[in-house]
Design a protein that fits this description.
The chain is of the alpha/beta class. It has two domains: about 140 residues, NAD(P)-binding Rossmann-like Domain (Rossmann fold, 3-Layer(aba) Sandwich), CATH 3.40.50; about 160 residues, Dihydrodipicolinate Reductase, domain 2, CATH 3.30.360. The chain is about 35% helix and about 30% strand. The chain has nine helices and 16 strands. Strands 8-9-10-7-11-12-13-16 form an eight-stranded mixed β-sheet. It has a six-stranded parallel β-sheet with strand order 3-2-1-4-5-6, sandwiched between helices. The longest helix is centred in the last third of the chain and has 31 residues. The protein is globular. It starts with 6 loop residues before the first strand and ends with a helix.
Length: about 325
């Protein structure tokens, strides 16, 4: 893949995320050429192709024969199979999150990538890593002592995701952000969750975390609220920082001071400064794909690789076990009552 030749890319899966990947690739003509899309639903694949100028492939193998790199945006249960097949055909891969439905399955991707040698590139699509607001937040809290983090990721019900619970579907985004901000090993993780609209999978979950340096965190994820909320709040030793993912805004409340009120020496007035931080108007998905393409061109490791994807899944499984234990305890108390 030498010289300035554009990277030939394909998209596997023409659903909601696949359509966005195709659109984003088409917006990066200086880096790549969107060659092909594949989806078992041919009508859906043709619709994406018509909007982007891509060729519709009847099979995954046909697509892999035409491209240098591929986005895997198929259903989560197929991520491992499709990623391994792409690696075996010599393609570099960006696989949407989750990397797999479990750690054991994710290890199969790790093994397949290792078999291809150190130059094989697999990036996991933890898109918030490339959110310009999150990037600015990392700079702002870079050298401050972190006290606590609170994250909310709430969505109305839409029923599209049927193979994952809310911890793996939504909370996984914030687990990745949390682990990327934390500076010490995770020593505690627990969750409670409940099903609301799903037959057997959790739709609303709350999790707590503690790290070896004292940092604590609380995450809430839901797919049954009536409002879409994406917020992160960071308490540091001298400030309180709030990030709104939807609005892509950051506000910093600096440490307050108490000053005496000259009109009454017995009282004090509390003062603080609120600073609004400029966030570059960059689409996270476009930034993510551009980073992937640059890794492919330069043959360097991606910012979010297999190891990071597996680490996040390890935390997901830890929370899922904790949530199941909490439900069992509640059921046991109910039976004993």
């Amino acid at each position: 893949m030498g010289g300035a030749r554009r990277i030939r890319v394909g998209v596997v899966g023409a659903g909601n995320m696949g359509a966005h990947h195709a659109r984003a690739y088409a917006s990066l003509p200086h880096l790549c050429e969107l060659v092909a899309v594949h989806d078992p639903n041919s009508m859906r694949a043709r619709a994406v192709a018509a909007r982007t100028g891509a060729f519709v492939c009847a099979s995954l193998d046909e697509l892999l024969d035409r491209v240098d790199a591929v986005s895997i945006a198929s259903p989560s249960a197929l991520h491992v199979e499709h990623t391994v097949r792409a690696l075996e055909r010599g393609c570099d891969v960006l696989v949407e999150k989750p990397l797999a439905l479990g750690v054991a399955q994710a290890r199969l991707v790790e093994q397949a990538a290792a078999a291809c040698g150190p130059r094989a590139i697999v990036q996991v699509g933890h898109i918030e890593h490339f959110n310009p607001a999150v990037r600015e937040l990392r700079k702002l809290v870079g050298d401050r002592a972190l006290v606590a983090l609170e994250m909310q990721r709430l969505s109305p019900w839409d029923g599209r995701i049927g193979d994952s619970d809310v911890i793996q579907d939504l909370m996984l985004h914030d687990i990745h952000v949390l682990l990327s901000l934390a500076r010490a090993p995770l020593v505690h993780a627990a969750a409670v969750a409940r099903s609301v609209r799903s037959a057997s999978r959790a739709d609303h979950a709350v999790a707590t975390f503690a790290f070896a340096d004292g940092l604590i965190a609380a995450l809430c994820a839901s797919r049954v609220t009536e409002e879409k909320v994406r917020r992160l709040a960071v308490t540091t030793d001298d400030s309180y920082v709030t990030l709104d993912y939807v609005r892509r805004t950051i506000e910093i409340c600096r440490s307050t001071s108490l000053r005496s009120d000259r009109r009454d020496s017995r009282t004090y007035r509390q003062e603080s400064i609120v600073e609004r931080v400029f966030v570059p108007p960059e689409e996270p998905l476009v930034a993510q794909l551009a980073s992937f393409l640059e890794c492919v061109r330069e043959r360097r490791s991606p910012e979010v690789g297999i190891a990071e994807g597996i680490r996040c899944l390890e935390v997901v499984e830890r929370l899922q076990r904790s949530a199941r234990a909490a439900i069992a305890a509640v059921d046991g108390e109910a039976l004993a009552a």
